[in-house]
Write a structure and sequence with these properties.
Helix content is 56%, strand content 20%. By secondary structure, the protein is α+β, with helices and mostly antiparallel strands. It starts with 8 loop residues before the first helix and ends with a helix. About 2% of the residues have low confidence.
Amino acid sequence: MLVPHAPGIRGRLALTFGGISVLLSLCLALIIGQVSKSRLEANSGSTLAQLASQMALTLDRGMFERFHQLQMLSELGPARTANEARSRQLFARVQETYPEYSWIGLTDLTGRVLLGSSGQFEGRDLSAAAWFREGRRAPYFGSVQDAPSLSSRAPDVNGPRKVIDFAMPIEGPDGSPKGVLGAHLNWTWVSEILDSLVLDPERLQLLVVSRDGEILLSSPARPRLERATLDTMRRFQHGYWLMEEPQGAVLAGFAVSKGHRSFPGLGWMVVVTQDAEAAFAESLDLQRQIVLWGFALGATFSLWGLFIAHRLAKPIRTLAAAADRVKQGERQLDLPAFEIREFGKLSESLTRMVSTLAEQERSLLEANENLERRVRARTSELQATEERFRQLAYRDVLTGLPNRLMFQEQMRQSMGYASQYGRKMAVMFLDLDRFKEINDTLGHDAGDLLLKQVAERLNASVRGGDMVARLAGDEFTVILNDVEDDSDVRVVATRIVMALSEPFDLAGEVVETSASVGICLFPSDGEDVAVLLKKADVAMYLAKRQRNGYQFYAEAYEQARG
């Protein structure tokens, strides 16, 4: 029965094709938008968290370097002997080289300032200052604080009033306490470092928060984060957070400083934030583009539906006319046989083809998945094998230190660098005293444990760019890169000798040993790896005979000639 005013097949196909394409585009836009938003949140949040972590690590490294600078300054001769002229010259040179120090001074044991950079505070009693009280007993560092006395007494001092206090006890040549070396580190130094890491200050905002929740540093467009939010971040230590704040959604990456090497850190937390709308702008733009493309595809598919409907309507009209003729009594139909057979064969062929293709695709997908699993497994095995080979080739199995092969390669690289830039480097060859006696008395397991602890103390005694290696048995080597003069080497050698002279706990057995260290310099003592190692070995044996801890090859050679 024919329904009056019913739409034809062309209209139905056009509306169906257009509606389906628009509906699919809208669903696709929603799904892709959510997926891309989640990925953007994870990627942007991880990026912000990594940036915050990098900033926190930069702060800790910078504080460690300044702490180490003052520690070395306290050990220099002028400071230890209270030689006024040399100390004043030394303080002036340090403040000129490192302008971030607002003030450096030396007090006696009562807190009276004996010497101060640019003459500041000299003669003043600073015994009530926290840095003096704590610095008499041990190295001290304080948090960020105001220094009104510094700005009022010295208006020409570089930087603002906020400073970080450092203090080191000063001992005389005989080891008796002589006073305290104090310093004020200008807070501007920290803000300059962090500003250099924020590449897009208009898009990213920065906060540095103290352990007590005080805002130490913030961007001009400071994000308004609730105190409860900051406390929650501190509990998690590191990560990112998408939060709803009064001013709108904010994506924040955060990291709490954990210190660096011997510097335990001040518990600062670095927070880097970005407006969520700006962070997810790419996802929203993608959704809008998909919707626009969906409507464009809907119009295109509507036109295409009209074209397909026109092609399909012709054989259908032919069949309908033939049916009408049969109804009227006509029994002989002059129909193009190919039209009827084409439809039937096409339907059967398409059905078989789709079924065959689906089966083939399933088989191919399974084969590809199996192949990918095998490739991934094989790749993982090869990578693990390669890493094991590398560890065996370049690392000492017992201590994990670089072995002789890696030591020789690093020596050649360090010598090449020193030759290219006109720098100096030093090689240390050290041997443990009484190792054979300990090994024979307590057994090889105790000897192995002693070697591991020695490796740990050696790594803790050298500088950041130096390398410790184990050649064989109880023989270790140290490469000191980029040394200025013998004093740099003596500082490290003294730390090594003192570290290894402390008792060792070997599974309940406390033993004592010491180390004999031979030292040679590049290029003055030689320009070949084998020559330098041999000369360091010779100096080490002389140090062992004289029992003086360490010995330079040049000094040993002069003694031999004399």
